[in-house]
Specification:
alpha/beta; binds 6-O-phosphono-beta-D-glucopyranose; about 35% helix; carbohydrate metabolism; G6P_DH_C; EC 1.1.1.49; NAD(P)-bd_dom_sf; G6P_DH_NAD-bd; about 475 residues; globular
């Protein structure tokens, strides 16, 4: 398949939040770095609002100017905006999608598609309820028609359903229209630098190979915290809750990379095969290994019912029943309106047997991978306190990215993932069977929560969440360490 010729990127839901905050800024950054050539690329926005090309460009400009791209030169911005065209229409209208197809075809002709292929990337920045009609319309009216090769791909965002049944239904509806290699299910955590580093870290370092198992690791924590609440997204959030919003997807994907076996190669299918095996080895979650919380003031949002039990915080322990991990708790924790904004992976090692220094109460070895902010990896070690006395102290071997890689800018997750969709690399996207296995883990618990059988405990905004969560960690064998 030739990879030259025209490339059309079609953002459906072009005036929505996701498009403005993530999709267009990522496209702009790719353009700015030379990954999207104006000789090949055209970007189309499609949405219901009846606005002009210029109005859409103005909206996008507003976002690009005041976000982190403030320093961007305005001529790059105007060149980028010139690539954008807008087509308005409903999400289930033949007529609208025919017009969209016509606009794309005109662009392809202008880019001399006859010399190459036609590549069409449809980015569904839309609520999942419209995925089925939109996919149908794309399939019927807008797929690539070039005889010279090329492709049609669609990119979808979570939430992919609300539980196993609805997710499978959605997968079947889309699967009836497009082949799996055409479907890119984004989980943006897979685009984060230190998440992408995980396999290199594990399989390119001899140091970790013999240690990465139940003989040496006491517990693993994967933690997400945000220091703000649901802020205007209460309506969406109340229907989903923190498990569906963060844990079932982002944290579970990270867990897969921490826990999976070495793939036979770096081919996307080999990597995803191993991730699926991890998910399939997780045993059912027990209610006593779950603590749910809801921050005080969450129900003040007018779109949230005042008897809502939806968790804005959860700690759940997952147990992987295989040779490598039996007995090791994987603690997944996520919360909104907490004391800080942070995401990290903490791998805590077991105590040293026969501890002649009697220093275990100072803390165990812990390997921390900080995903954000300030990407870093550090290893907590016990060392001799410098000086005349023989005293031990806990210290860190610290690889902080800002200091180590000065001047290197770390790409946004969406930039990297969109580039992968254009290049046809599905490694960092969720495969259908992976999604199914992820829902299988959480669906029974989610149904119990939805029925009110597991209750959310109130916690103060700006706190660590309910105290019961810390008690659960302790019970699971997590030992609080010193330092950071
Ligand atoms: C999204 C969730 O998927 O991830 C949001 O829907 C959350 O609730 C966001 O705020 C967090 O992403 P990041 O990249 O800021 O950690």
């Amino acid at each position: 398949v030739s990879e030259t010729g025209s490339l059309s990127i079609i953002v459906l839901g072009a005036s929505g939040d996701l498009a403005k905050k993530k999709t267009f800024p990522a496209l702009f950054n790719l353009f700015h770095q030379g990954f999207l050539s104006p000789d090949e690329v055209h970007i189309f926005g499609y949405a219901r609002s009846k606005i002009t090309d210029e109005e859409l460009r103005d909206k996008i400009r507003g976002y690009l100017v005041d976000e982190k791209n403030a320093s961007v030169k305005s001529d790059a911005l105007s060149k980028f905006l010139k690539l954008i065209k807008y087509v308005s229409g409903p999400y289930d209208s033949e007529e609208g999608f025919k017009r969209l197809d016509k606009a794309i075809s005109e662009h392809e002709i202008s880019k001399k598609t006859s010399e190459g292929s036609s590549r069409r990337l449809f980015y569904l920045a839309l609520p999942p309820s419209v995925y089925p009609p939109v996919s149908k319309m794309i399939k019927a009216w807008c797929t690539n028609k070039s005889d010279l090769g090329g492709w049609t791909r669609i990119v979808v965002e979570k939430p992919f359903g609300k539980d196993l049944e609805s997710a499978e239904q959605l997968s079947s509806q889309i699967g009836a229209l497009f082949e799996e290699p055409q479907i890119y299910r984004i989980d943006h955590y897979l685009g984060k630098e230190l998440v992408q580093n995980m396999l290199v870290l594990r399989f390119a370092n001899r140091l970790f190979l013999p240690l990465w198992n139940r003989d040496n690791i006491a517990n693993v924590q994967i933690v997400f915290r945000e220091d703000f609440g649901t802020e205007g997204r209460g309506g969406y959030f109340d229907e989903y809750g923190i498990i569906r919003d963060i844990i079932q997807n982002h944290l579970l994907q990270v867990l897969c990379l921490v826990a999976m076996e070495k793939p036979i190669s770096l081919k996307p299918e080999h990597i995803r095969d191993e991730k699926v095996k991890v998910l399939q080895s997780v045993i059912p979650i027990k209610d006593e290994e779950v603590v749910l919380g809801q921050y005080e003031g969450y129900r003040d949002d007018p779109t949230v019912p005042n008897d809502s039990n939806t968790p804005t915080f959860a700690t759940t322990i997952l147990r992987i029943d295989n040779e490598r991990w039996e007995g090791v708790p994987f603690i997944l924790k996520a919360g909104k309106a907490m004391s800080s904004k942070k995401a990290d992976i903490r791998i805590q090692f077991k105590d040293v047997p026969g501890d002649i220094f009697k220093c275990q109460n100072q803390g165990r070895n812990e390997f921390v991978i900080r995903l954000q902010p300030s990407e870093a990896m550090y290893m907590k070690l016990t060392v001799k306190q410098p000086g005349l006395e023989m005293q031990t102290v806990q210290s860190e071997l610290d690889l902080s990215y800002k200091q180590r890689y000065q001047g290197v800018s770390i790409p946004e997750a969406y930039e990297r993932l969109i580039l992968d969709t254009i290049r046809g690399d599905q490694q960092h996207f969720v495969r259908r069977d992976e999604l199914k296995a992820a829902w299988e883990i959480f669906t029974p618990l989610l149904h119990r929560i939805d029925k009110g059988e597991v209750k959310s405990i109130p916690y103060k905004q700006g706190s660590r969440g309910p105290a019961e969560a810390d008690q659960l960690l302790k019970k699971a064998g997590y030992m609080q360490t010193h330092g950071y």
